[in-house]
Design brief:
The complex is a heterodimer of chains A (277) and B (323). Chain A has 277 residues and is mainly α. Chain A has helices spanning 2-29, 35-53, 58-68, 70-84, 89-111, 135-157, 159-169, 171-176, 181-203, 213-228, 233-253, 258-272; strands at 125-128, 131-134. In chain A, strands 1-2 form a two-stranded antiparallel ribbon. In chain A, helix 2 packs across helix 3 (58-68), helix 3 (58-68) packs antiparallel against helix 9 (181-203) and helix 10 packs parallel to helix 12 (258-272). Chain B has a single domain (31-288), classed as ABC transporter involved in vitamin B12 uptake, BtuC. The chains are: A mainly alpha (277), B mainly alpha (323). The interface between A and B is large, with 40 and 39 residues.
Chain lengths: 277, 323
């Protein structure tokens, strides 16, 4: 029971870290960014390379990935996403999907197609009512919650945050105030991508790292964003943890059905509250 | 009498069907029968997809679900109900129609990105059901062989017989799509793509139009799936895998969305690329991705769209010269 709750919170934390960037891109630029899944997978693979470089120092490698992903995110934004602003939604989906394809193939080219297993970087367990829970997973939950806190603070207190919130409400109105919205959106996109890579890094030791790992997470992200509301950072937090919990409970009953139940929730929430993009 | 009506129909500018049939027949001695069968079945799938994306302007990234429904529907029919291939194809198509009607009630209410991704979500659910949920009946990951009967002289273990069957069905589908898109209903569907609110305002029931178009699209996809089952005599979960959706999107775009000939060109080009290029190009997905990016940013009319706009420009130039 306790392990189910702990696992649900862990998955929820990972989902939150990955989805938040997706949610902001969706809310501000009105683009469903399939290449978000690529950034996530790339994060996990970069971790493998950095760990070799930094002598298995997990903390340093994580930092390396979060910074190392920025040029990739910048390139994707500059070369593709920027050209899709205000264009056809279909082309945005197809173009970002094309990036995902190219990226997956590059990953297969560089790192090989076979799954890679990583070990738990901490390895110790924490005892909760006689059930051993890996400290690493507790750490993920704490990281996710602190990221949520930081995002909340930045959005409420800083000028960038206020511009982004205003941009979520009405991009045109913000533009008419003479603010270069795209600059802020780019920043948000890059931070979101870094967080997605961080999600990939944190999740890598729990599952296997494989080239197609992003495809599965993409739909989960989309489910989180739809259930939580696009661009709604608080809703995303609640939705991520609820869906993580749901996955964990389902996984306990029938392991293979854990993802499927999320898609069913996604379908139901789209029926109740269809999004207009 | 039958022949007479056929002749009249052919006079009504439908002789392009004959030309299409002839092109496919001529391809057989140049390439192999199996390749041309693949081409034609895939073209049927693209035609169905194009009805949804090209004519109604709804992008689905989960259309393999409907192809897979047809393929598995036909295979299950053969395995558990009746080994007659014709009945199996019909059953597969009915399965596609049923799933289109049921899921369509939900799916066609959405738009744009929601539409694309809700299809993807259902595709994942379908894949899961086939691979794990109903593995006892579907054979799970290993797939299932289909042992069907001969019917009269038709023996679908022989490629030439399959070729004839698929050719006839392809021509019928082309004829159907052509008639449909030129009917008042087809014009309503196109107006949904252009501006749904306006179509609604004019008093049309756009929901019914969307639901029927979606159902027709899923039925045609399922028909293609059932033909795959007959052609290969087995099904595997790869027929319902969401990762293969890119194939039909690619074919539709490269051929030219919103045109019957564009769909055929796209289907043919794609299967040629699949069959010829992997020997030359190692990085297959990367190639597809790069071409897709080029299509989106520089070549959004597709091959057929470019040909028609080029010939239109030429004829305009000619008229201007004459005047």
């Amino acid at each position: 029971m306790i392990s189910v709750i702990a696992y649900g919170l862990t998955i929820g934390g990972i989902l939150y870290i990955i989805s938040i960037g997706f949610s902001f891109t969706f809310g501000t630029m009105k683009i469903v960014n399939f290449s978000h899944a690529l950034i996530y997978a790339l994060g996990a693979y970069l971790l493998i390379s950095f760990q070799k470089l930094f002598d298995n120092n997990f903390l340093l490698s994580t930092l390396g990935v979060v910074i190392g992903i920025i040029p990739f995110a910048f390139l994707i934004e500059r070369l593709v996403i920027r050209r899709l602003y205000g264009g056809s939604i279909h082309f945005a989906i197809i173009a970002t999907y094309a990036i995902l394809l190219i990226g997956i193939d590059s990953i297969k080219w560089i790192w090989g197609a076979s799954p890679i297993q990583l070990s738990d970087p901490i390895g110790a367990n924490f005892n909760v009512f006689g059930v051993g829970i890996p400290i690493y997973r507790m750490l993920i939950i704490i990281i996710a919650l602190s990221i949520a806190g930081i995002i909340e603070m930045v959005l409420q207190r800083s000028l960038i945050g206020k511009i982004v919130i205003a941009g979520l409400e009405d991009t045109e109105a913000v533009k008419s105030l003479g603010i270069n919205v795209n600059k802020y959106f780019t920043t948000v996109f890059i931070i979101g991508s870094s967080l997605a890579a961080l999600g990939g890094v944190l999740y890598a030791p729990i599952t296997a790292v494989e080239p197609y790992m992003g495809n599965q997470i993409l739909l989960l992200c989309f489910a989180v964003v739809v259930v939580g509301g696009m661009g709604n950072w608080r809703g995303t937090l609640v939705a991520a943890f609820s869906l993580g919990m749901l996955m964990s409970i389902t996984g306990r009953i029938w392991g293979a059905a854990a993802d499927v139940v999320v898609f069913i929730v996604l379908a139901i929430s789209l029926i109740i509250k269809p999004i207009d993009i | 009498m039958m022949k007479h009506t056929l002749l009249i129909k052919l006079k009504d500018k439908d002789w392009d069907l004959l030309l299409i049939a002839m092109i496919f027949v001529v391809m057989v001695p140049i390439f192999t029968v199996n390749l041309v069968i693949d081409l034609m079945i895939f073209s049927i799938f693209v035609l169905g997809y194009n009805l949804l994306y090209g004519y109604m302007g709804r992008l689905s990234v989960g259309h393999m679900l409907y192809l897979g429904t047809g393929a598995y529907g036909a295979a299950m029919f053969i395995a558990y109900i009746n080994p007659n291939p014709f009945l199996a194809i019909m059953f597969g198509m009915l399965c596609g129609m049923a799933i289109g009607l049921i899921l369509g009630l939900i799916i066609v209410r959405t738009n744009g990105a929601s539409f694309a991704l809700i299809n993807l979500a259902f595709n994942q659910v379908g894949f899961f059901l086939v691979q794990t949920g109903f593995a006892k009946w579907t054979g799970g990951e290993d797939g299932k062989s289909a042992y069907f009967d001969k019917v009269l002289f038709m023996d679908f273990y022989q490629p030439t017989h399959v070729f004839l069957l698929v050719l006839v069905i392809l021509i019928l589908v082309v004829l159907f799509v052509k008639k449909l898109t030129r009917s008042p209903f087809g014009i309503l569907v196109k107006s949904i793509k252009e501006n749904e609110t306006r179509a609604k305002f004019l008093g049309y029931n756009t929901f019914r139009g969307k639901l029927w178009t979606f159902t027709l699209s899923t039925s045609i996809a399922a028909l293609a799936g059932a033909l795959y089952t007959i052609n290969y005599a087995y099904v595997t979960p790869s027929f319902i895998a969401q990762s293969r959706n890119v194939e039909v999107i690619f074919a539709t775009l490269i051929g030219g969305a919103g045109s019957i000939y564009g769909s055929l060109v796209g289907g043919v080009v794609f299967i040629f690329i699949v069959n010829l290029l992997p020997n030359i190009i190692q990085r297959w997905e990367m190639f597809l991705g790069i071409i897709l990016l080029i299509v989106v940013f520089r070549f959004d009319k597709g091959i057929w769209g470019s040909i028609t706009s080029w010939s239109n420009k030429r004829s305009i130039a000619k008229i201007q010269k004459g005047a």
